[in-house]
């Protein structure tokens, strides 16, 4: 049994870098985004261009064989064996849950404020069965009464910073010196404040996972019907209710999914997107509140969003309801971040 | 296959009414608290004393046979057949989800503000196969942008009001003329404001159900271990975090259950009660906020709590953290409320 691995063409979007064909340039780095449920492997050339990408379902909780039976080696060989066969001496960098206590080798968290040098200083190396050393990027911990942790997002954040207009992926000054707000929607959505090129603080919202649990494992799911197409109006209605009634809390507003249905004000196929709007709206209301404590107005921010396009577009719509109209999507943050850290760590030299 | 039905002795607690022995007094009323997952049947004498109680798992979603095959009749006969065999002409009153669209007969909601007369006016009758008419109490709807509904709790609320000191269950003035706050913790916790003996408005918090979903169906459950005994300190810690960080919202604070564990500040067997404190704390923070909108201070209220003793005691502790020290438990609210409505409906005459 092995995880499914597929080759995929990079979506270039508005990226100005030319699409590279595998084999036409010399490979210089393998970099892995290795999370809980998936493994994405990138092959870079010496200029930081992505030559090839392989995606597998072999996340650390979904290895082809158990970890104690060599599951990490099996997944790594499956994803990267072809590349290493062609270019045996390639350096390898990995970020994400692969560095957690349940990962291949634990890379202890570095604490906020965390810059790229701290991440590089926290890299640990695990030797694969095939003899290759895999450098593992540490996660970031924000200590305190309500600690926060991230693994993988730190790499995407520095990738997003390097994608700023008028910056260059290999330019040390790219992260800039002013504060930036970066959002990473998803199962456990993260919002990070970057100051002076360091992750100063961040917040985690269990938005995606709570939405899934509410939909599948509470009474709310019983009357829901999946719509044929995403229902933006129902989504925005949910955001609006969360924004106006935020202080009542999600425990209270969530029940309106049911009562609006009972009173025939919300059709079954509007309920999934309405609830999605509610939970994302509560996330943004919470974000607005924690930013306000430090005298930062969410409406005045121009957040960079990292994640699946459709989800990020929803966040843009939701943010606009909070008066925050400057949000924009950043693509290829993961690859850019991996490359950037590899350069800083001396695994490759910036061209 | 039938639902399990058991006789049970009433817990008299601090109730000053004498325990009555079945058979020593004349039965005058059967009253049912018929919810989603259970059916509780009470046999009253003409003075409103409970002569006997039978408890069954035959809630409306758990009938002994499907509804369309006579499931309601089967459950009713199983619970009350013995009593009706002894006293065939007994009037029968039922409250709870039995009056919902999925129930025996739908009793359309009455709208807030809802007093006892409105409930009595909304009673519908269904004739059981055995020939007995069952009077079904309607639920209450609060219309609006975020509608709220209850079924069963309205009966408990009037029961609690009748249990006020210096009041009498059959006294029309018992509900008083001043505002009262009544809390009903549970799967879908309700908080009702009663003004001039009418349910003026109420709020629903999905506290119990969200706690269960977070524990069983998110990452938070993975590191939890059930404690040998309830951990009040961990519970109060959770309440405190919710109170201090309420504006960040439950989506944010819930994740601290995991991160405090990762940073060894919260042991696995402290996590369940900590999370319980978090969700109940967010409920109370939300309640405090919605009350404040109408210039009511939660701390100045003396809420009556209806529900399982251990859960109500937890709410008392949590409320005290919000400065609300006047909360007290009300027992036998269900029986009292059923009796009171039966009297008002003329099913029995108050002695």
Account of the protein in words:
- The structure is a homodimer of 351-residue chains.
- The first copy, chain A, has 351 residues and is α/β, with parallel strands linked by helices.
- Chain A has two domains: 5-173 and 333-344, 2-Layer Sandwich (Nucleotidyltransferase, domain 5), CATH 3.30.420.300; 207-329, Nucleotidyltransferase, domain 5, CATH 3.30.420.310.
- The first copy, chain A, contains ten helices and 16 strands.
- The first copy, chain A, has helices at 71-86, 116-121, 153-162, 207-217, 232-244, 250-253, 256-262, 271-292, 309-321, 333-344; strands spanning 5-7, 27-34, 39-45, 50-56, 92-95, 110-111, 114-115, 124-127, 133-136, 140-142, 148-150, 180-184, 189-195, 198-205, 304-305, 328-329.
- In chain A, the strands form three sheets. A seven-stranded mixed β-sheet of chain A has the order 1-4-3-2-5-9-8, with helices on both faces.
- In chain A, a hairpin with a 2-residue loop joins strand 13 (189-195) and strand 14 (198-205).
- In chain A, helix 4 (207-217) packs antiparallel against helix 8.
- The model of chain A is unreliable at 8-20 and 166-177 (pLDDT under 50).
Can you give keywords for this protein?
homodimer; 351 residues; alpha/beta; Nucleotidyltransferase, domain 5; 2 domains; 7-stranded mixed sheet; 6-stranded mixed sheet; 10 helices; 32% helix; 20% strand
């Amino acid at each position: 049994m092995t995880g499914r691995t597929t080759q995929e063409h990079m979506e270039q979007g508005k990226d100005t870098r030319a699409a590279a064909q595998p084999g036409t340039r010399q490979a210089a780095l393998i970099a892995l985004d290795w999370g809980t449920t998936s493994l994405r492997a990138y092959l870079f050339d010496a200029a930081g261009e992505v030559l090839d990408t392989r995606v597998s379902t072999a996340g650390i909780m979904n290895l082809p064989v158990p970890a104690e039976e060599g599951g990490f080696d099996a997944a790594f060989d499956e994803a990267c064996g072809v590349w290493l066969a062609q270019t045996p001496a390639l350096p390898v960098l990995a970020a994400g849950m692969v560095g957690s206590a349940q990962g291949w080798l634990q890379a202890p968290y570095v604490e906020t404020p965390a810059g790229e040098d701290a991440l590089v200083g926290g890299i640990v190396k695990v030797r694969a069965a095939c003899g290759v050393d895999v450098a593992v990027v540490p996660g970031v911990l924000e200590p305190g009464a309500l600690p926060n942790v991230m693994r993988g997002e730190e790499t995407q954040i520095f990738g997003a910073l390097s994608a700023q207009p008028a910056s260059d992926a290999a330019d040390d000054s790219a992260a800039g010196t002013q504060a930036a707000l970066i959002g990473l929607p998803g199962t456990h959505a993260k919002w990070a404040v970057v100051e002076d090129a360091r992750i100063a603080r961040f917040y985690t919202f269990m938005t995606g996972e709570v939405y899934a649990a509410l939909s599948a494992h509470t009474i709310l799911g019983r009357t829901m019907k999946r719509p044929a197409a995403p229902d933006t109006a129902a989504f925005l209605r949910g955001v609006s209710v969360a924004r106006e009634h935020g202080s009542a809390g999600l425990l209270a507003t969530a029940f309106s999914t049911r009562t609006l249905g009972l009173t025939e004000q919300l059709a079954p196929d509007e309920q999934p997107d309405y609830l999605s709007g509610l939970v994302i709206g509560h996330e943004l209301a919470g974000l607005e509140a924690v930013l306000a404590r430090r005298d930062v107005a969410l409406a005045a921010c121009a957040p960079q969003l990292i994640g699946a396009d459709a989800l990020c577009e929803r966040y843009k719509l939701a943010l606009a309801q909070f008066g925050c109209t400057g949000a924009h999507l950043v693509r290829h943050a993961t690859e850019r971040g991996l490359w950037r850290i590899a350069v800083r760590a001396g695994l490759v030299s910036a061209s």
